[in-house]
Write a structure and sequence with these properties.
Blueprint (H helix, E strand, L loop, with lengths): L1 H17 L9 H8 L12 H9 L2 H15 L3 H35 L3 E6 L2 E6 L8 E4 L8 E13 L1 H4 L5 E2 L20 E2 L4 E13 L5 H9 L19 H20 L6 H27 L6 H12 L6 H18 L2 E3 L3 H5 L5 E4 L11 E7 L3 E6 L11 E5 L3 H6 L7 E2 L2 H5 L2 H12 L4 E4 L5 E4 L2 H11 L5 H4 L9 E11 L4 E9 L4 E10 H6 L1 E6 L2 E4 L2 H15 L4 E10 L18 E10 L6 H10 L3 E5 L4 H11 L11 H7 E3 H6 L2 H6 L6 E3 L3 H13 L4 E5 L5 H6 L2 E5 L4 H6 L2 E3 L4 H38 L16 H11 L1 H8 L22 H28 L18 H24 L20 H8 L1 H12 L1 H6 L3 H5 L8 H30 L12 H16 L4 H4 L8
Parallel strand pairs: 9-23, 9-26, 19-22, 23-25, 24-25, 26-27, 27-28
Antiparallel strand pairs: 1-2, 1-3, 3-7, 4-5, 4-6, 4-7, 8-28, 10-11, 10-22, 11-12, 12-13, 14-15, 16-17, 17-18, 18-21, 19-20, 21-22
Amino acid sequence: MFLLLHQTSTSLNRACQRSSLDPPSFSPLSKIERYGRNELGDDGGTSALRILVKQIVNAMMLVLILAMAVSFSIKDWIASGVVAAVVAINIIVGFFQEYAAEKTMESLRSLSSPTASVIRHGTTKVVPTAEIVPGDVIELRVGDTIPADLRLFECMNFEADEALLTGESLPVSKDANIIFKEADQAGVGDRINMAYSSSVVTKGRAKGYVIGTGMTTEIGRIAQSLQGRKSRVRKPVAKESGHIPWHAYIRAGGGTVKDHVFKFLGLNVGTPLQRKLSKLALFLFAIAVIFAIVVLGANKFSNNSDVIIYAVATGLSMIPASLVVVLTITMSMGTKRMVKRNVIVRQMNALESLGGITNICSDKTGTITQGKMVVKRAWIPASGTYTVENISEPFNPTSSQVTFASISPAASESMEHPPKPIPFNISEHSSRHPVQSFLHAASLCNLATVHQNEEGEWIVRGDPTEIGIQVFVSRFDYSREHLMTQSNNTGSTWSQVAEFPFDSDVKRMSVIFRKKDEKQHSEVAFLKGAVERVLEACILMKTEEGDVEFTEERREKVLENMEALAAEGLRVLAIASRPWKEIVDDWRDYPRANVEKDMVLLGLIGLYDPPRPESLPSIKKCHRAGITVHMLTGDHKATAQAIAQQVGILPKALYKISPALLRAVIMTATEFDRLSDEEVDELPILPLVIARCAPQTKVRMVNALHRRKCFVAMTGDGVNDSPSLKEADVGIAMGTGSDVAKSAADIVLTDDNFASILNAIEEGRRMFDNIKKFVLHVLAENIAQACTLLIGLAFKDSSGLSVFPLAPVEILWIILITSGLPDMGLGMLDATPDVMTRPPHDRKRGVFTNEVLLDMVVYGLWMSALCLSSFVLVLYGFGGGNLGKGCNSTFSEECRTVYRARATTFTCLTWFALFLAWEMIDLRRSFFRMKPNSTKYFTQWAYDIYDARFLFWAVIVGFVTIFPIIYIPTLSDKVFGHTWISWEWGVVFVEAFLFFLGAEAWKFAKRVYYRHHLKDEMAHDPEDDLEMGAFSRYTTMAMATIGLNEKHLARIPQQTE
């Protein structure tokens, strides 16, 4: 490597500093074939063998296998064969479903994998890190994870955190101009002209050529050396002296055994809900054992094979073998649906959390707004106000019209009839010295580029704010690229000397440029940033009289103009500069405070970022769903307020809120941070808008919401946002954000759109509802089977043995046909119409709400009662009550009545379980009116069940298979233990009618109860009256807080911006 660097460094630097293009054209695909993908090893992707083994070696399947072994041991070949078929079908179906789910998750992981900004053939592209190849030119900025080993050729205050590689706690400053010889033998940590894979950019920006990918990187060599060293065995913990006592080995061994047992049972792997359902399955297994013992006890622990196999079947009826598998498939399908709605799930835990979100803390720029900043106004005190009108193409500097007014924005606002801005001669104005100074500063203190390609299309690259400013200065022919070339019309060439990038703490950036012309060389420092932060650094102000002292009076005038621009919803920045006289040899450790002082204020620039069209309706939907939206932005207070009112975060009629309460509703970060935690907790409400927000303010806001028992989602895109993303219950990163923010987040929005957050919440609620539905279906069915089988033990023949209302094979068939596929269908259901008009669900109760627990008992007991009544009706009502002898295993004329009663009970229970799945489509609405606004009064139910296509066919298949099972000879009496039925179908249809009648009556009773007793749980926010719906609590609170909370509100410090 050293020889390569030594031979190529000089030409590399010369070539690459002249151009940011990539090396001679190459095919990335051919290089991937040659060098391999940029990944640390190959995990083999989705392993079919591993999934197959997982289907066999798990607690629930081993219970079925154990039951099969018991069946074989007592030589009940028919039951053994059926259990074996159930095991095989569960394994096969589970394998294919989970294999598809794993493939889905694998594709999602590739979507959420890190990306890199690559320059190929002169065009900047964002590609997955795995597709980086040697020879690529990579652009790096703050927050990026370095995708490969790079030889840097351009650095600007560039530092990287290499602690993962070298153990160095402090970021390493880089220098692209350093050249090492092979004889130097520089270590990894000393090669400051290199950037290493997996390091994180902490400061500045850089470009570099890829020289190593995948396992050929430095981190790849370490990973290769560590392969095979992972241990699943706990190590004993030594004392401080280093001695390891004997009991430490016992504790480590016991912990290892516990880890493996818990992993096998699913108690310490997966999401919280998966672990909870694994615990439920373990509990039901214990219940199953008890029920099996009850069966044996009721028959005096007879060694009769029929009794033993019935006990096994009764136990199996309580085990939800498919529950965890269906949950996994439902969640994987949910993540796939989210991708289509521009949401990538990084942490599966987030799927369970999304439906419980009560508060969203969102950024403004690019999330609530479009992120396409355009300059609307620019105020140059020494000249006047420039206004850009009729903006049709935000990136085209030749479109739109620029007008000029000689008065300031504040003066125009105070006049009743201000003079109208007029068109002007651009070349004449740009030749004025104050305008030139402003344009130079705005153009050069800026990293964005704007240029026109060969097809005439305007191409932009950079931060949206800087792009907007760059487009504005390009209207005057003062673009950055133009000023830095020798062919520009100003007679001077500018070259960059140093840069102090924008920092969210200081809220400004500065650069130093060297100006070269025929007469002399000089250097100038330029400064751009938040108005109040730039004013802190200014001592002079450029006016018509020249550079004058920046007095308090002039400061107030500037702030008045800033307020006037901000009131229009504009993001306002200040521009300043000063001559630079000091000679600095090494800029890497030079304090930025020495540069950002003694500045001359040149003017203000106001940018407009229009709200996304979908933001207002999305925030309305949030209010109707009981979710409060907070906007945390770095913009000025007036700008933030204007945008918040436009999108519905704040009411338009702010006069309805008392001034005292309004101070809590809209705050700046300075005002909020000055309050102690106790004072924040005493506020009647937390701010809906925080302006000039800093990263630490976001963390405090999340903590304050947590203290109020809120469940918080936080958005972020920068490096400094990662603490608040981790602190929030659901961290939401932007797709265009930094890799650090993405790695700290739970979900990523591919389109940076607030509406996608609502999509994620809606999908989270839909998934949570569906999980409740199939859990309820499974457990209600278990209760029905258990009650039927246990109460059926009371029917005894002349030998004293119980006559079973259901044969063991029938039980196994019901478990097979009515659980897995219908439950998968319930997991795939679309959202119910009221999913986003209900408040967030209770996170403590999870899926096991009071309603679900009560439904489970009611439906289970009702199904059991109907099944037992059908058995009694056929056996005693029409059959004379002859229980025969030995009717559990052999068919005879004496047992015909028992067999017909058993077939009737079997048909009823199968159909009830299948019909219950349809009733579960909506837990409260009638099966026959699931869409209340439909005009198809008698046929809407048919459309609804057919819309749920997977569930529809799962139910139909189960429904139809009843007929061959009952009417095929030998299969009917020898295998399933029942016989043909005829008039008994009348009993089945009456029982089915009673099932629907009971289910509908129960739903009707629930609707009446919730309508009268729990009506306040529904979010009241009619779409046509947002003000009264979403904000009435604030206007009501305004009246209540006058006097009562004035002492708390008065503590909010007033800040003049």
